[in-house]
Design goal:
alpha/beta; Rossmann fold; 2 domains; 7-stranded mixed β-sheet; 10 helices; 20 strands; binds S-adenosylmethionine
Protein backbone atom coordinates (compact mmCIF):
# COMPACT_ATOMS: atom_id res chain seq x y z
CA UNK A 1 0.00 0.00 0.00
CA UNK A 2 1.33 3.47 -0.88
CA UNK A 3 1.96 6.14 1.74
CA UNK A 4 1.89 9.91 1.44
CA UNK A 5 4.73 11.59 3.32
CA UNK A 6 4.15 15.27 4.02
CA UNK A 7 5.11 17.66 6.85
CA UNK A 8 2.07 16.48 8.85
CA UNK A 9 3.27 12.85 8.84
CA UNK A 10 3.15 9.69 6.78
CA UNK A 11 -0.29 8.34 5.88
CA UNK A 12 -1.43 5.16 4.15
CA UNK A 13 -3.91 6.06 1.44
CA UNK A 14 -5.96 3.97 -0.99
CA UNK A 15 -8.15 4.89 -3.95
CA UNK A 16 -11.68 3.58 -3.86
CA UNK A 17 -13.16 1.48 -5.28
CA UNK A 18 -10.26 -0.84 -4.48
CA UNK A 19 -8.78 -2.59 -7.53
CA UNK A 20 -6.36 -5.45 -7.82
CA UNK A 21 -3.00 -4.20 -9.11
CA UNK A 22 -3.99 -0.52 -8.75
CA UNK A 23 -1.33 1.59 -10.44
CA UNK A 24 -2.62 5.03 -9.44
CA UNK A 25 -2.04 6.81 -6.16
CA UNK A 26 -4.79 8.26 -3.99
CA UNK A 27 -3.20 11.72 -4.04
CA UNK A 28 -1.24 13.89 -6.46
CA UNK A 29 1.56 16.46 -6.42
CA UNK A 30 -1.01 19.23 -5.90
CA UNK A 31 -2.08 17.64 -2.57
CA UNK A 32 1.60 17.44 -1.56
CA UNK A 33 2.23 21.07 -2.55
CA UNK A 34 -0.85 22.31 -0.68
CA UNK A 35 -0.01 20.37 2.49
CA UNK A 36 3.59 21.63 2.44
CA UNK A 37 2.38 25.21 2.01
CA UNK A 38 -0.20 24.88 4.82
CA UNK A 39 2.52 23.57 7.11
CA UNK A 40 4.86 26.44 6.20
CA UNK A 41 2.12 28.97 6.90
CA UNK A 42 0.61 27.58 10.07
CA UNK A 43 3.04 25.00 11.42
CA UNK A 44 1.33 22.94 14.11
CA UNK A 45 -0.94 25.90 14.96
CA UNK A 46 -3.45 25.01 12.28
CA UNK A 47 -6.74 26.89 12.45
CA UNK A 48 -9.49 24.61 13.77
CA UNK A 49 -12.32 23.52 11.47
CA UNK A 50 -10.91 24.63 8.10
CA UNK A 51 -13.14 23.97 5.10
CA UNK A 52 -11.66 21.45 2.61
CA UNK A 53 -13.35 21.34 -0.77
CA UNK A 54 -13.20 18.57 -3.43
CA UNK A 55 -10.64 16.36 -1.64
CA UNK A 56 -10.65 13.30 -3.96
CA UNK A 57 -9.70 10.36 -1.76
CA UNK A 58 -9.23 12.04 1.60
CA UNK A 59 -5.50 12.88 1.44
CA UNK A 60 -6.09 16.41 2.75
CA UNK A 61 -8.70 15.40 5.32
CA UNK A 62 -6.54 12.64 6.74
CA UNK A 63 -3.36 14.74 6.90
CA UNK A 64 -5.22 17.67 8.50
CA UNK A 65 -7.50 15.57 10.72
CA UNK A 66 -6.06 17.09 13.92
CA UNK A 67 -7.67 20.41 12.92
CA UNK A 68 -11.13 18.76 12.70
CA UNK A 69 -11.81 19.85 9.12
CA UNK A 70 -15.17 20.12 7.41
CA UNK A 71 -15.18 18.39 4.02
CA UNK A 72 -17.48 19.88 1.35
CA UNK A 73 -17.72 17.56 -1.61
CA UNK A 74 -19.91 16.39 -4.51
CA UNK A 75 -18.71 12.77 -4.54
CA UNK A 76 -19.93 9.73 -2.65
CA UNK A 77 -16.69 7.95 -3.56
CA UNK A 78 -14.75 10.76 -1.88
CA UNK A 79 -16.99 10.29 1.15
CA UNK A 80 -16.32 6.57 1.52
CA UNK A 81 -12.62 7.11 0.71
CA UNK A 82 -12.31 9.74 3.41
CA UNK A 83 -13.57 7.39 6.11
CA UNK A 84 -11.76 4.34 4.71
CA UNK A 85 -8.44 6.19 4.74
CA UNK A 86 -9.06 7.74 8.17
CA UNK A 87 -9.58 4.24 9.54
CA UNK A 88 -6.43 2.93 7.82
CA UNK A 89 -4.46 5.52 9.78
CA UNK A 90 -6.19 5.01 13.11
CA UNK A 91 -7.94 8.39 12.86
CA UNK A 92 -11.31 8.72 14.55
CA UNK A 93 -13.68 9.60 11.71
CA UNK A 94 -15.62 11.89 14.08
CA UNK A 95 -12.67 14.29 13.68
CA UNK A 96 -13.83 14.98 10.12
CA UNK A 97 -17.23 16.49 9.31
CA UNK A 98 -18.80 15.70 5.97
CA UNK A 99 -20.98 18.14 4.08
CA UNK A 100 -22.40 17.01 0.72
CA UNK A 101 -22.27 19.62 -2.06
CA UNK A 102 -26.08 19.84 -1.98
CA UNK A 103 -25.86 21.46 1.47
CA UNK A 104 -24.12 24.76 2.03
CA UNK A 105 -21.66 25.48 4.80
CA UNK A 106 -23.41 27.85 7.17
CA UNK A 107 -20.53 28.93 9.40
CA UNK A 108 -17.62 31.03 8.16
CA UNK A 109 -14.61 28.67 8.14
CA UNK A 110 -11.30 29.52 9.77
CA UNK A 111 -9.49 28.75 6.48
CA UNK A 112 -10.45 27.39 3.04
CA UNK A 113 -8.39 24.79 1.14
CA UNK A 114 -9.60 23.59 -2.23
CA UNK A 115 -8.73 21.10 -4.95
CA UNK A 116 -10.19 22.35 -8.22
CA UNK A 117 -13.29 20.42 -9.27
CA UNK A 118 -13.32 18.91 -12.77
CA UNK A 119 -16.13 21.12 -13.92
CA UNK A 120 -16.04 24.91 -14.06
CA UNK A 121 -19.75 25.34 -13.30
CA UNK A 122 -19.26 23.63 -9.98
CA UNK A 123 -16.16 25.75 -9.33
CA UNK A 124 -18.19 28.88 -10.09
CA UNK A 125 -20.95 27.85 -7.68
CA UNK A 126 -18.46 27.02 -4.94
CA UNK A 127 -16.67 30.36 -5.34
CA UNK A 128 -19.94 32.30 -5.24
CA UNK A 129 -21.10 30.49 -2.09
CA UNK A 130 -17.72 31.11 -0.45
CA UNK A 131 -17.71 34.78 -1.38
CA UNK A 132 -20.92 35.21 0.65
CA UNK A 133 -19.69 33.06 3.51
CA UNK A 134 -16.14 34.07 4.36
CA UNK A 135 -15.13 37.27 6.15
CA UNK A 136 -13.55 40.16 4.21
CA UNK A 137 -9.81 39.60 3.74
CA UNK A 138 -10.01 35.77 3.66
CA UNK A 139 -7.59 34.13 1.23
CA UNK A 140 -8.69 30.85 -0.27
CA UNK A 141 -5.88 28.48 -1.24
CA UNK A 142 -6.61 26.14 -4.14
CA UNK A 143 -4.39 23.51 -5.76
CA UNK A 144 -4.31 21.41 -8.89
CA UNK A 145 -1.95 20.06 -11.50
CA UNK A 146 -0.80 23.00 -13.64
CA UNK A 147 -2.29 21.47 -16.81
CA UNK A 148 -5.80 21.93 -15.31
CA UNK A 149 -5.24 25.60 -14.39
CA UNK A 150 -6.04 27.77 -17.40
CA UNK A 151 -6.22 31.54 -17.83
CA UNK A 152 -10.00 31.12 -17.83
CA UNK A 153 -9.81 29.33 -14.45
CA UNK A 154 -8.00 32.30 -12.93
CA UNK A 155 -10.45 34.72 -14.58
CA UNK A 156 -13.28 32.81 -12.91
CA UNK A 157 -11.63 33.25 -9.51
CA UNK A 158 -11.22 36.97 -10.23
CA UNK A 159 -14.86 37.39 -11.29
CA UNK A 160 -16.46 35.24 -8.59
CA UNK A 161 -14.19 35.59 -5.57
CA UNK A 162 -11.53 38.30 -5.79
CA UNK A 163 -7.94 39.19 -6.72
CA UNK A 164 -6.02 36.04 -7.60
CA UNK A 165 -2.42 35.01 -8.11
CA UNK A 166 -0.62 31.70 -8.55
CA UNK A 167 2.52 30.10 -7.15
CA UNK A 168 5.43 28.77 -9.13
CA UNK A 169 4.92 25.21 -10.35
CA UNK A 170 6.37 22.35 -8.28
CA UNK A 171 6.30 18.81 -9.66
CA UNK A 172 3.88 20.18 -12.30
CA UNK A 173 1.41 21.35 -9.62
CA UNK A 174 0.43 24.91 -8.78
CA UNK A 175 -1.33 26.76 -5.98
CA UNK A 176 -3.88 29.53 -6.46
CA UNK A 177 -4.31 32.29 -3.87
CA UNK A 178 -7.52 34.24 -4.11
CA UNK A 179 -8.56 36.94 -1.64
CA UNK A 180 -12.25 37.65 -1.27
CA UNK A 181 -13.63 40.95 -2.50
CA UNK A 182 -17.19 41.22 -1.32
CA UNK A 183 -17.76 44.35 -3.42
CA UNK A 184 -17.37 42.50 -6.75
CA UNK A 185 -20.34 42.89 -9.10
CA UNK A 186 -23.00 40.16 -8.86
CA UNK A 187 -22.49 37.24 -11.24
CA UNK A 188 -25.39 35.91 -13.28
CA UNK A 189 -25.23 32.24 -12.29
CA UNK A 190 -28.23 30.29 -13.50
CA UNK A 191 -27.98 26.89 -11.82
CA UNK A 192 -29.91 24.80 -11.08
CA UNK A 193 -31.29 25.15 -14.59
CA UNK A 194 -34.18 23.27 -16.15
CA UNK A 195 -34.02 22.06 -19.74
CA UNK A 196 -36.92 20.72 -21.74
CA UNK A 197 -36.63 17.62 -23.90
CA UNK A 198 -39.81 16.78 -25.82
CA UNK A 199 -41.99 17.86 -22.90
CA UNK A 200 -39.79 16.21 -20.23
CA UNK A 201 -38.32 18.70 -17.76
CA UNK A 202 -34.79 17.97 -16.57
CA UNK A 203 -33.31 19.85 -13.65
CA UNK A 204 -29.54 20.25 -13.67
CA UNK A 205 -27.45 21.35 -10.73
CA UNK A 206 -23.97 22.69 -11.44
CA UNK A 207 -22.12 19.42 -10.76
CA UNK A 208 -24.10 17.25 -13.20
CA UNK A 209 -23.05 15.50 -16.40
CA UNK A 210 -24.18 17.26 -19.60
CA UNK A 211 -25.91 20.01 -17.62
CA UNK A 212 -26.34 22.50 -20.46
CA UNK A 213 -28.01 20.23 -22.96
CA UNK A 214 -28.91 16.58 -23.07
CA UNK A 215 -25.99 14.34 -24.06
CA UNK A 216 -26.31 12.96 -27.60
CA UNK A 217 -25.83 9.38 -26.39
CA UNK A 218 -28.66 9.89 -23.87
CA UNK A 219 -30.90 11.33 -26.62
CA UNK A 220 -30.33 8.26 -28.75
CA UNK A 221 -30.91 5.95 -25.76
CA UNK A 222 -34.24 7.67 -24.95
CA UNK A 223 -35.57 6.42 -28.30
CA UNK A 224 -34.61 2.83 -27.47
CA UNK A 225 -35.52 2.25 -23.83
CA UNK A 226 -37.45 -0.88 -22.77
CA UNK A 227 -41.25 -0.50 -22.99
CA UNK A 228 -44.45 -1.89 -21.42
CA UNK A 229 -42.79 -2.37 -18.05
CA UNK A 230 -45.90 -2.30 -15.81
CA UNK A 231 -44.86 -2.48 -12.14
CA UNK A 232 -41.26 -3.61 -12.75
CA UNK A 233 -38.41 -2.45 -10.49
CA UNK A 234 -36.08 -0.38 -12.64
CA UNK A 235 -32.72 1.10 -11.72
CA UNK A 236 -31.31 4.17 -13.48
CA UNK A 237 -27.62 3.53 -12.78
CA UNK A 238 -25.41 6.63 -13.00
CA UNK A 239 -28.61 8.66 -13.30
CA UNK A 240 -27.17 12.17 -13.81
CA UNK A 241 -30.21 14.48 -14.10
CA UNK A 242 -32.51 11.42 -14.18
CA UNK A 243 -33.38 11.62 -17.91
CA UNK A 244 -33.58 7.85 -18.43
CA UNK A 245 -35.53 6.97 -15.29
CA UNK A 246 -37.89 9.94 -15.57
CA UNK A 247 -38.65 9.07 -19.21
CA UNK A 248 -39.41 5.47 -18.19
CA UNK A 249 -41.62 6.60 -15.31
CA UNK A 250 -43.58 8.95 -17.59
CA UNK A 251 -44.35 6.03 -19.93
CA UNK A 252 -44.82 3.43 -17.15
CA UNK A 253 -46.50 5.14 -14.20
CA UNK A 254 -46.71 1.92 -12.17
CA UNK A 255 -43.01 1.13 -12.40
CA UNK A 256 -40.83 1.44 -9.28
CA UNK A 257 -37.74 3.51 -9.95
CA UNK A 258 -34.40 3.69 -8.18
CA UNK A 259 -32.01 6.47 -9.20
CA UNK A 260 -28.35 5.99 -8.28
CA UNK A 261 -25.33 8.22 -8.80
CA UNK A 262 -22.08 8.87 -6.98
CA UNK A 263 -22.53 12.64 -7.45
CA UNK A 264 -24.79 14.22 -4.81
CA UNK A 265 -25.82 16.95 -7.21
CA UNK A 266 -26.91 14.31 -9.73
CA UNK A 267 -29.08 12.52 -7.20
CA UNK A 268 -30.59 15.86 -6.19
CA UNK A 269 -31.14 16.80 -9.84
CA UNK A 270 -32.87 13.47 -10.58
CA UNK A 271 -35.14 13.99 -7.60
CA UNK A 272 -36.02 17.52 -8.72
CA UNK A 273 -36.58 16.30 -12.31
CA UNK A 274 -39.01 13.73 -10.89
CA UNK A 275 -40.94 16.43 -9.06
CA UNK A 276 -40.82 18.83 -12.03
CA UNK A 277 -42.67 16.25 -14.15
CA UNK A 278 -45.33 15.67 -11.46
CA UNK A 279 -44.55 11.98 -11.25
CA UNK A 280 -46.51 10.21 -8.54
CA UNK A 281 -45.14 6.64 -8.60
CA UNK A 282 -42.68 4.96 -6.26
CA UNK A 283 -39.12 6.25 -6.46
CA UNK A 284 -35.93 6.12 -4.46
CA UNK A 285 -32.94 8.44 -4.92
CA UNK A 286 -29.61 7.23 -3.67
CA UNK A 287 -25.99 8.42 -3.62
CA UNK A 288 -23.86 5.30 -3.94
CA UNK A 289 -20.85 3.74 -5.63
CA UNK A 290 -22.53 1.82 -8.49
CA UNK A 291 -24.76 -0.88 -6.96
CA UNK A 292 -22.58 -1.70 -3.95
CA UNK A 293 -24.78 -3.07 -1.11
CA UNK A 294 -27.86 -3.45 -3.32
CA UNK A 295 -29.60 -6.80 -2.70
CA UNK A 296 -28.84 -9.53 -5.22
CA UNK A 297 -31.63 -10.63 -7.59
CA UNK A 298 -33.75 -7.58 -6.81
CA UNK A 299 -34.15 -5.57 -10.03
CA UNK A 300 -36.08 -6.31 -13.23
CA UNK A 301 -34.40 -3.77 -15.49
CA UNK A 302 -31.24 -1.67 -15.21
CA UNK A 303 -30.63 1.17 -17.64
CA UNK A 304 -27.23 2.81 -17.82
CA UNK A 305 -25.16 5.26 -19.83
CA UNK A 306 -21.83 4.32 -18.21
CA UNK A 307 -19.13 6.88 -17.36
CA UNK A 308 -15.78 6.67 -19.12
CA UNK A 309 -13.74 8.34 -16.42
CA UNK A 310 -13.39 8.66 -12.67
CA UNK A 311 -12.57 12.26 -11.88
CA UNK A 312 -9.71 13.18 -14.21
CA UNK A 313 -8.77 9.54 -14.79
CA UNK A 314 -10.06 8.23 -18.10
CA UNK A 315 -10.84 4.51 -18.16
CA UNK A 316 -13.58 1.93 -18.26
CA UNK A 317 -13.13 0.49 -14.76
CA UNK A 318 -16.26 2.14 -13.34
CA UNK A 319 -18.27 1.07 -16.40
CA UNK A 320 -17.02 -2.48 -15.99
CA UNK A 321 -17.96 -2.42 -12.30
CA UNK A 322 -21.44 -1.20 -13.23
CA UNK A 323 -21.90 -4.09 -15.68
CA UNK A 324 -20.62 -6.68 -13.20
CA UNK A 325 -22.76 -5.44 -10.33
CA UNK A 326 -25.80 -5.18 -12.61
CA UNK A 327 -25.44 -8.87 -13.35
CA UNK A 328 -25.58 -9.60 -9.61
CA UNK A 329 -28.47 -7.27 -8.81
CA UNK A 330 -30.76 -8.32 -11.69
CA UNK A 331 -33.31 -11.09 -11.17
CA UNK A 332 -33.20 -14.12 -13.45
CA UNK A 333 -34.74 -12.99 -16.73
CA UNK A 334 -33.95 -9.33 -15.89
CA UNK A 335 -32.40 -7.04 -18.49
CA UNK A 336 -29.46 -4.66 -18.51
CA UNK A 337 -29.79 -2.09 -21.28
CA UNK A 338 -26.94 0.32 -21.95
CA UNK A 339 -25.81 2.92 -24.45
CA UNK A 340 -22.18 3.51 -25.40
CA UNK A 341 -19.87 4.80 -28.07
CA UNK A 342 -19.42 2.11 -30.70
CA UNK A 343 -15.67 1.90 -30.12
CA UNK A 344 -15.93 1.10 -26.38
CA UNK A 345 -16.41 -2.61 -26.95
CA UNK A 346 -19.24 -3.11 -24.44
CA UNK A 347 -20.70 -5.88 -26.63
CA UNK A 348 -17.85 -8.28 -25.85
CA UNK A 349 -17.93 -7.38 -22.16
CA UNK A 350 -21.65 -8.05 -21.85
CA UNK A 351 -21.31 -11.33 -23.71
CA UNK A 352 -18.58 -12.39 -21.33
CA UNK A 353 -20.62 -11.52 -18.24
CA UNK A 354 -24.15 -12.46 -19.28
CA UNK A 355 -23.43 -15.06 -21.97
CA UNK A 356 -25.59 -13.04 -24.39
CA UNK A 357 -25.93 -9.57 -25.89
CA UNK A 358 -28.32 -8.13 -28.49
CA UNK A 359 -27.91 -4.89 -30.40
CA UNK A 360 -31.18 -2.98 -29.95
CA UNK A 361 -30.18 -0.02 -32.13
CA UNK A 362 -27.11 1.67 -33.53
CA UNK A 363 -26.12 4.74 -35.48
CA UNK A 364 -22.74 5.96 -36.70
CA UNK A 365 -21.67 6.90 -33.15
CA UNK A 366 -23.64 4.93 -30.56
CA UNK A 367 -24.94 1.50 -29.89
CA UNK A 368 -27.76 0.44 -27.55
CA UNK A 369 -27.17 -3.04 -26.16
CA UNK A 370 -29.32 -5.45 -24.16
CA UNK A 371 -28.19 -8.42 -22.06
CA UNK A 372 -30.50 -10.81 -20.20
CA UNK A 373 -29.56 -12.52 -16.94
CA UNK A 374 -30.01 -16.27 -17.44
C1 LIG B 1 -22.35 9.32 -18.89
S1 LIG B 1 -23.09 9.95 -17.41
C2 LIG B 1 -24.80 9.50 -17.67
C3 LIG B 1 -25.78 10.37 -16.93
C4 LIG B 1 -27.25 10.15 -17.30
N1 LIG B 1 -27.65 8.79 -17.07
C5 LIG B 1 -27.45 10.50 -18.76
O1 LIG B 1 -27.58 9.58 -19.58
O2 LIG B 1 -27.47 11.71 -19.07
C6 LIG B 1 -22.50 8.80 -16.21
C7 LIG B 1 -22.99 9.07 -14.80
O3 LIG B 1 -22.41 8.07 -13.94
C8 LIG B 1 -22.12 8.67 -12.69
N2 LIG B 1 -21.09 7.87 -12.00
C9 LIG B 1 -19.75 7.88 -12.18
N3 LIG B 1 -19.16 7.00 -11.36
C10 LIG B 1 -20.15 6.43 -10.65
C11 LIG B 1 -20.16 5.45 -9.62
N4 LIG B 1 -19.04 4.89 -9.19
N5 LIG B 1 -21.35 5.08 -9.10
C12 LIG B 1 -22.51 5.66 -9.53
N6 LIG B 1 -22.55 6.60 -10.50
C13 LIG B 1 -21.39 6.98 -11.04
C14 LIG B 1 -21.65 10.07 -13.07
O4 LIG B 1 -21.74 10.95 -11.97
C15 LIG B 1 -22.61 10.40 -14.21
O5 LIG B 1 -23.76 11.06 -13.73
Amino acid sequence: MESLTCPFGTFKLQRLPLRKNETLRAWDAADEYLLTYIHEQFGQALPQKPLIINDSFGALGVALAASQPVQWNNSWISYISQYHNAELNGIDSKQIDWLPSTNRPDIAPSAVFMKLPHNTCLLEEQLLVLRELVPEGTTLIAADMAKHIHTSTLELFEQCFGPTKTSLAKKKARLIFSTVDKALPAVNFNYPRTIDHNGMKLVNHAGVFSRQKLDIGTRFFLEHLPEALQDAHIIDLGCGNGALGVHIAMKNPQAQLTFVDESYMSVQSAQESWTANNLQGEAEFRANDCLTDFPKDSADIIVCNPPFHQGNTVGDHIAWRMLQQSHEVLRKGGELRIVGNRHLGYHAKLKRLFGNCQTVASNNKFVVLSAIKK
